[in-house]
Amino acid sequence: MIVEDLYFTKLNANLFLFLEKSLPNRTSRFEAFLELYKAQIERCKIHPNGINVPVGITYDYLAKKWNWDRKTVMSFLKSLQEMGVLEYKRCGYNMEVRIINLAYFPIEKRPK
């Protein structure tokens, strides 16, 4: 049996209230957040200090993937940043996104 290392973050109730709202025929806010979270976890797996290394991405890529317009992506990220869940910054045409308070708990350090 393969047991993966644990990654976790602190989340607040306001985040869940924000994520529950979504529009039909589009990726839900919750699914979009999970995709960002998973991307950060993948970064952790390939980079020794991955928790602190942002994921590079573009607004256009997310808009197309989630079936949102660019403004909606920008608003979504801004809202998450204001809630203290992630931070993002523009880097030319790209942007860097990083989940805040992500913690890594390797197998060997887990309590038995």
The structural domain count equals 1
Which whole number gives the mean pLDDT? 79
CATH architecture, by name, is: Orthogonal Bundle
Major β-sheet, in short?
Answer: 3 strands, antiparallel
Descriptive notes:
- With 112 residues, the chain is α+β, with helices and mostly antiparallel strands.
- The protein has a single domain (11-19, 27-102), classed as Orthogonal Bundle (Arc Repressor Mutant, subunit A).
- Strand 3 and strand 4 (94-99) form a beta hairpin.
- It has a 3-stranded antiparallel β-sheet with strand order 2-4-3.
- The protein has 4 helices and 5 strands.
Summary, kept brief:
The chain has 112 residues and is of the alpha+beta class.
Any chance you could write out the topology, listing elements then pairs?
Blueprint lengths: L5 E3 L4 H7 L9 H18 L8 E3 L1 H8 L3 H13 L3 E6 L2 E6 L3 E3 L7
Descriptive keywords:
alpha+beta; Arc Repressor Mutant, subunit A; 112 residues; globular; three-stranded antiparallel β-sheet
